[in-house]
């Protein structure tokens, strides 16, 4: 009977959360959603240079033409947006949405996708850690995480597609643990077709010697790749890869940045390090800092070595907790090393923290969850103080410090008897 009440509580809470998010869609800034909608428009025209508008000099003819065409779409008075950086297959999918929906309607659809994706993340994460955890309590804590931290705030306020990607990743490993290898492989292949980095997570299946989801991933991934080429063509993919290359040459530092490249830029780049000596930049901006060649190459070599080690010795390193702590560790490591890394890329790993507490009832995990909320919600203080430069400089340092701490305890406590179940 208690289990039934817990399920009722979960569904009631999930329904309220979904209704609130969808009803609030018109209030969200949704710069990312604007970028998706614009990309869909240009994908319909097969104008791939404007689907991926990177590398234009600010006053070039291409840049002015792009701005005039975006303004003609009349999405909103000042169409600020985040440029699209997903593979051409999804630009074509967004092109269909662009043809069928006005932007206002598109925002509501995106809000529904984000809300449902977050709920799927919550359920998949609960099953990964321990399916016997009270789903209503778990969801309540997750909503607190989504509502207060930069990781959740960005996904909701920007209607970020990362929620869907993270849901697919967690579902892949949940399904893989329940002997549904084809579904698991499909979920991870879909995630990798949206963002390439989820493909790196296959090392967990290699470490567990789970070959069936790995084969399914390869088959579905190959099919999605061929579908993308068939729908968009080779030129689209060449333009996409060129845009990725341009993005990887620099790091953008803003309050939602979280990663080793952002920390390096803040501490050592003259533009930003001057803040600590009182020589702050004249005005707030998103700081774009070039990444030195050696700094770009060495972390990637290190990542390849780490992935190889996890594939070889991951089962020994994480023990029975490989599914939860192993997955969480890999998500953190990949995001920390990525050239462009934002706080919402870490959300699925952060969502494991309250579940570890509910699973073990160990106060250590409760304190860790409190520290997570504190560190990743500090941006509200800086916003209230209206100190945008301090916000931009401080949040990446605080967030990255917490992430490194969390990574260290995931690895260091993986073989602890308090959480032997994955």
Describe this structure in words.
71% of the residues lie in helices and 2% in strands. The chain has 22 helices and two strands. It has helices spanning 2-23, 31-44, 48-51, 61-72, 88-100, 103-129, 135-148, 150-157, 162-176, 181-194, 202-207, 211-232, 234-247, 260-268, 270-273, 293-318, 322-337, 347-350, 352-360, 363-376, 379-385, 388-412; strands at residues 250-253, 287-290. A two-stranded antiparallel sheet has the order 1-2.
What are the main properties of this structure?
22 helices; globular; disordered C terminus; about 425 residues; mainly alpha; about 70% helix
Short description:
The chain is mainly α and 422 residues long.
Question: What integer is the average pLDDT?
Answer: 88
Beta-strand content estimate: under 5%
Largest sheet: 2 strands, antiparallel
Number of helices: 22
Structural class: mainly alpha
Let me know the number of strands: 2
Indicate the percent of residues in helices: over 70%
Poorly predicted ranges (pLDDT <50, ≥5 residues)? 417-422
What order do the strands of the largest sheet run in, or round the barrel if closed?
1-2
Distance between the termini: 27 Å
- Using the CA coordinates, give the radius of gyration: 21 Å
Order of helices and strands: HHHHHHHHHHHHHEHHEHHHHHHH
Which overall shape is indicated by the principal axes computed on the Cα atoms? globular
